[in-house]
Amino acid sequence: MKISVAMCTYNGEKYIKKQIESILNQSLAVDEIVICDDGSNDKTIEIIEQFQLENPKIISLQKNQVNLGSNKNFEKAISICDGDYIFLSDQDDIWKKEKVKKIIQYFYENESLEAIFTNGELINDKNEKFTEISLWDSVSFMEDQLKNLNDLYLHLIFKSNMVTGATLCIKKEIKNLILPFPDIKNLHHDEWIAVIIASRKKIGYLKEDLISYRLHSEQQIGTKLRIKKNRLKNNHLIIDQILGNSIPKSYADHRRLAKVYYNNYLKFKKFSNNQKNDSHFIFKEISELNLEFFKKCNFSLKKTNPVFYIFTNIIDKIRGKRQFNKQQTV
Question: What are the Glycosyltransferase 2-like domain coordinates in residue numbering (predicted)?
Answer without folding.
Answer: 4-112
